[in-house]
Amino acid sequence: MTEVKAKKFLGQHFLTDENIARRIVDSLSPTTRRVVEIGPGMGVLTKYLIDRTDTDLHVIEIDRESVAYLHDHYPTLDVIEGDFLKYDLSTIFHDSYSVIGNFPYNISSQILFRVFECRNQAVEVVGMFQKEVAERVAAGPGSKTYGILSVLLSAYYDIEYLFTVHEHVFNPPPKVKSAVIRLTRNDVTSLECDESLFVKVVKAGFNQRRKTLRNALRSAGLEVAAVPDEVLGKRAEQLSTAEFISLTKTIESCQ
Questions:
Q1: What is the tens place of the pLDDT at every residue in 90-139?
Q2: pTM reported for the whole predicted model
Q3: What phi-psi label fits residue 102: left (phi over 0), alpha (psi between -120 and 50 degrees) or beta?
Q4: What's 8-185's CATH class?
Q5: Sheet containing 122-130: which strands, arranged edge to edge?
Q6: Superfamily the domain 195-253 falls into
Q7: pLDDT digit string, tens, across residues 202-228
Q8: E-strand stretches of the chain
Q9: Which of 63, 67, 102, 169 is the most buried (most CB within 10 A)?
């Protein structure tokens, strides 16, 4: 097993179990041809990605020491020194691509929001997250872990919780368990509502999730006069993605 120094300032815990690394890479669709790996570190996933035939692989790494290591050990690899949250991947891929990574815990939600923004190109995501984050993303309505990312991502992706990863396979070991999930782009090309308003409605509902939707939406300045009382009396966690879309259409009709 390979052990490397953790980049604590990024919240990164490095995977040291080669079997888990191989299993994560194998979770990508076998038809995947264009892949971007986020935060490869010292390449524990990268070496298995390189072994995939006919794969156009690019990696994005923000840490200079890791970038130097990757250049030294994988001289033919396209290593981009930069921040995935700010990088425009359309300059590399003019078509669809898949995203993979052992994501730093402290920016994993931001990575998923960025994926949501890139949803028309990012057709697949395989990632390792803190277990609680993974469960939140994969949760359905009625669950206490169901939230903003659950709704936004499930509007455009099929989400699968693949497997749990225990603490001892990392250096340094985190205090929490991790999990691998897979997002696969569905057939939805656009929602039957204003998509920016949809995002605003979902965020408004969950930002005050203990309140009824009547109070949460009004607090966000949204017009709810046309929304049925039956819906307004519910809390955000009780609505499915389809119901949030319907709610957005109703609010849109009032504007």
A1: 888 889 999 999 998 889 999 999 999 999 999 999 999 999 999 999 99
A2: 0.91
A3: beta
A4: alpha beta
A5: 78-81, 56-61, 34-38, 97-102, 122-130, 178-185, 157-165
A6: rRNA adenine dimethylase, C-terminal domain (1.10.8.100)
A7: 999 999 989 999 999 999 999 999 999
A8: 14-15, 34-38, 56-61, 78-81, 97-102, 122-130, 157-165, 170-171, 178-185
A9: 102
